[in-house]
């Protein structure tokens, strides 16, 4: 264990050195012969950043190279995505993104790249199902009561989300569309501030991932009314489908993409490395501590899901913006 | 609570905790001193190291990087007028003037002592008042944040120079610059002229280096001076008498910084500027501010470090990170199996107190490490000007580029550099512009949120639900007018 720790710490050190522009002078004949950069189109300290820190501190053991995180936030994720779209298709530049940036944005505005054609998936790392949350003091005991109140008072229910077309906004929009209600959507700068708005009473309802909800739930400060997914996450809380919101709702998939011209053997090698993470005890333990699951899918499997997402999101955006 | 505190005290006194904390402090100081590298980057890159350390070692290590980084930013701000972060802008006003007078060592000492004092007092205060602060944090929503930001801008404009009209024009220009890019609420593009490069807005660092450092370099080159301005003496260390004179200012700024730290979303930039403005306003010689006043450095640095303590409160009590730095700390806590939130104190009280106590000790180590390394840093200004100027230019370009690794930023740097030179020639102070730019976006965002919350009835919303914010909004013109009159009087004499 200690040996492993030392090895990992040193690989982190190497990665840190690389990130600061030092070169290690290690060279090998075949891929990967230099460190791989993983671009995140989002800011520091978010859940993608934290997930990536765990991935990049473990994966060097499986690819024999450092993997460096580069955060390129801006323009709602477009800046980082474009950076990878324009990067060399050699497997040394990867994009770590999520399904809403990846497949939804194209239907909202004109992008300087074509996500469907310019990228192919290397692996899906994990996914997070969303939960509908109210304050513990809220008069709404169940999801049905919340919806009934929303129908009585259109626009009167304040819903805190983390930005337009983001991970909390889209499921809220899907609920509104499926059940024909309208909430007053108030943006906050991230899931944390949105949760704070709920706790302080500024918002009536918000969405949150179970990993982030855990402390509030344990302290009895919030109540969960519904969760995404086919299975119940909490025994006494219905799923979205049970309360009448059907389809692929409220899942954030964390995925690794690469430019679509990247050679297949390189992609397969990378996919294999990501897949080995699932059997790495340290990786699984750390992801567990972050409250994240590990459910790694290979490229082709996720590609089929991407295609479906694109169709569903197109429909959602058209319905919501045509009013 | 008390026994947990005592137990935590015992836990914190570990050799490896102090060694890693020292490493973090020194590393943070170096990273902070390099323009373009932010404290946040250093924390994010070194976060995984904390995964493999004990929580009482790993988290203080990250806190060390944080504290060291904030002070580190003031080093280039004082020595070469190159603030690497928004928090160091207020420090550079008087700090660089002191360097020009050959007193760079005094300025750095002042910055160190006031940083440590501000940080330490606010850490101790936070530890004692953690639950009342947590209650206070919950009282602030977007309407209150908007009101406080607007008030801050008015105070800055009124007290920044001798000519509030010019300050206001520059500030409005800064606010307009902050609009460029994608509208944070609606996602609409504004003033981008269809350029994708402008879509994510104007980056802060190229602007800071452009308007503050480039004009200094240009001044030396154009006037062909014998290096009086850029390279010079490092001078004497700070004396006890000089330090004692600034104690009142340090206390005032610490209170201001701690107060601002409890308001989610305000942060160090506002704290430093408010501390500076308050010191200038309370002084019986405000005309010396901006001309190399030690008190100015003390006021800014004590205030921006005092913000650190309270920003930890929402993280520890609610498990909600208020900014990027605390988000990274959240990751470090969670990876250790410590889930910050309402129950953390019940379950792991001793460990949390141990971390907080380590944080207080970190300040003492910081004092020692800083004091020993200042001579090494201040030697920089004794380099020959023919070497120093190219070095500064190199760092300016490297810093502007590294910040986002985007070559467009080099053009921005040159553009803002030229703007800074012109503004200086026309006697327009760039500081209000930079403040308008930094605070414009959060202010607009908070205003947009307020409008969304009010759901069409803004007046009713303020009158009915948000009387506190309304009260602040109503006194803003009064404060602005009084300050402006006062400043005009004192500067005229």
What would you note in describing this structure?
The complex is a heterodimer of chains A (323) and B (493). Chain A has 323 residues and is α/β, with parallel strands linked by helices. Chain A is 42% helix and 19% strand. Chain A has 13 helices and eleven strands. In chain A, the strands form two sheets. Chain A has a six-stranded mixed β-sheet with strand order 2-1-3-10-4-11, with helices on both faces. A five-stranded mixed β-sheet of chain A has the order 7-6-8-5-9. Chain A is globular, with a radius of gyration of 21 Å. The termini of chain A are far apart. In chain B, strands 1-2 form a two-stranded antiparallel sheet. With 493 residues, chain B is mostly helical. Helix content of chain B is 75%, strand content 1%.
Number of strands of chain A: 11
Helix-strand makeup class of chain A: alpha/beta
Structural class of chain B: mainly alpha
**Mean pLDDT metric of chain B:** 90
Rg on CA atoms of chain A, Å: 21 Å
> How would you characterize the largest beta sheet of chain B?
2 strands, antiparallel
Low-pLDDT residue spans of chain A: 20-28
Q: Quote the distance from N terminus to C terminus of chain A.
A: 59 Å
The rounded distance between the terminal residues' Cα atoms of chain B is: 56 Å
Proportion of residues in extended strands of chain B? under 5%
Q: Give me the strand/helix succession of chain A.
A: HEHHEHEHHEEHEHEHEHEEHHEH
**Assembly type:** heterodimer
Q: Cα-atom Rg of chain B, whole angstroms?
A: 22 Å
Q: In which range does the helix fraction of chain A lie?
A: 40-55%
> What's the main sheet of chain A like?
6 strands, mixed
Count of extended strands of chain B: 2
SSE pattern of chain B = HHHHHHHHHHEEHHHHHHHHHHHHH
């Amino acid at each position: 264990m200690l040996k492993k720790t030392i090895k990992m710490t040193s690989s982190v050190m190497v990665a840190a050195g690389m990130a600061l522009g030092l070169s290690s002078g290690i060279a090998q004949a075949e891929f990967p012969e230099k460190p791989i950069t993983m671009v995140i189109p989002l800011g520091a300290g978010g859940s993608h950043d934290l997930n990536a820190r765990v991935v990049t501190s473990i994966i060097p053991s499986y690819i024999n190279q450092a993997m460096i995180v580069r955060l390129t936030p801006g323009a709602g994720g477009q800046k980082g995505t474009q950076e990878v779209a324009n990067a060399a298709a050699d497997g040394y530049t990867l994009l770590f993104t999520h399904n809403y940036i990846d497949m939804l944005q194209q239907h909202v505005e004109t992008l300087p790249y074509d996500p469907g054609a310019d990228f192919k998936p290397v692996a899906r790392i994990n996914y997070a199902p969303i939960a509908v949350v109210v304050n513990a003091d809220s008069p709404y005991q169940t999801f049905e009561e919340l919806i009934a109140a929303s129908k009585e008072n259109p626009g009167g229910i304040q819903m805190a989300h983390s930005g337009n077309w983001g991970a909390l906004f889209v499921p809220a929009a899907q609920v509104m569309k499926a059940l024909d209600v309208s909430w007053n959507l108030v943006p906050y700068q991230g899931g944390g501030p949105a949760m704070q708005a709920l706790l302080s009473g500024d918002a009536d309802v918000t969405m949150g991932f179970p990993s982030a909800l855990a402390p509030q739930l344990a302290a009895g400060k919030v109540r969960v009314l519904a969760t995404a997914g086919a299975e119940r996450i909490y025994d006494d809380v219905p799923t979205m489908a049970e309360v009448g919101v059907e389809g692929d709702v409220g899942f954030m998939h964390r995925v690794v993409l690469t430019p679509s011209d990247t050679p297949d053997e390189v992609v397969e090698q990378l996919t294999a490395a990501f897949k080995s993470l699932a059997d790495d005890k340290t990786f699984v333990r750390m992801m567990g501590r972050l409250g994240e699951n590990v459910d790694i899918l290979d490229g082709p499997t996720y590609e089929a899901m991407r295609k479906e997402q694109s169709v569903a999101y197109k429909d959602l955006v058209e319905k919501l913006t045509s009013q | 609570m008390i026994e947990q505190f005592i137990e935590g005290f015992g836990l914190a006194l570990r050799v490896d905790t102090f060694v890693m904390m020292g490493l973090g402090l020194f590393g943070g100081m170096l990273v902070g001193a390099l323009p373009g590298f932010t404290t946040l980057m250093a924390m994010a890159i070194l976060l995984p190291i904390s995964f493999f350390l004990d929580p009482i070692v790993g988290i203080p290590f990250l806190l060390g990087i944080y504290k060291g980084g904030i002070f580190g930013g003031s080093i280039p701000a004082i020595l070469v007028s190159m603030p690497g972060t928004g928090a160091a802008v207020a420090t550079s006003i008087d700090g660089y003037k002191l360097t020009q007078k050959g007193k760079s060592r005094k300025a750095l000492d002042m910055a160190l002592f006031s940083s440590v004092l501000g940080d330490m007092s606010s850490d101790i205060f936070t530890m004692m008042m953690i639950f009342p602060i947590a209650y206070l944090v919950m009282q602030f929503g977007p309407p209150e944040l908007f009101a406080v930001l607007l008030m801050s801008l008015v105070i800055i404009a009124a007290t920044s120079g001798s000519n509030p009209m010019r300050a206001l024009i520059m500030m409005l220009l800064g606010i307009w610059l902050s609009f460029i890019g994608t509208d944070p609420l609606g996602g609409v593009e504004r003033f981008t002229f269809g350029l994708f490069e402008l879509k994510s807005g104007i980056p802060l660092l190229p602007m800071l280096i452009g308007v503050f450092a480039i004009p200094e370099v240009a001044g030396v080159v154009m006037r062909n001076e014998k290096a009086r301005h850029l390279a010079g003496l490092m001078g004497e260390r700070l004396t006890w008498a000089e330090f004692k004179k600034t104690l009142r200012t340090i206390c005032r700024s610490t209170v201001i910084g701690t107060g601002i730290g409890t308001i989610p979303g305000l942060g160090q930039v506002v704290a430093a500027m408010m501390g500076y403005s308050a010191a200038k306003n309370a002084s019986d010689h405000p005309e010396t501010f901006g001309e190399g006043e030690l008190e100015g450095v003390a006021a800014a640095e004590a205030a921006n470090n005092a913000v650190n303590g309270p920003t930890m409160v929402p993280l520890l009590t609610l498990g909600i990170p208020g900014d990027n730095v605390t988000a990274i700390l959240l990751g470090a806590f969670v990876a250790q199996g410590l889930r910050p939130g309402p129950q953390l104190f019940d379950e792991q009280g001793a460990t949390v107190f141990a971390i907080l106590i380590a944080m207080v000790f970190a300040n003492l180590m910081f004092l020692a490490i800083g004091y020993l390394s200042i001579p090494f840093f201040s030697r920089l200004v004794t380099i020959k000007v023919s070497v120093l100027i190219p070095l500064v230019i190199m760092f300016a370009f490297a810093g502007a580029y590294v910040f986002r690794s985007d070559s467009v930023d080099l053009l921005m740097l040159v553009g803002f550099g030229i703007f800074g030179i012109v503004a200086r020639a026309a006697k327009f102070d760039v500081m209000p512009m930079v403040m308008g730019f930094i605070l414009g976006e959060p202010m607009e965002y908070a205003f947009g949120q307020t409008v969304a919350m009010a759901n069409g009835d803004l007046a009713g919303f303020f009158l009915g639900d948000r009387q506190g914010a309304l009260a602040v909004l109503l006194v803003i013109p009064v404060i602005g007018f009084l300050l402006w009159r006062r400043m005009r009087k004192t500067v005229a004499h």
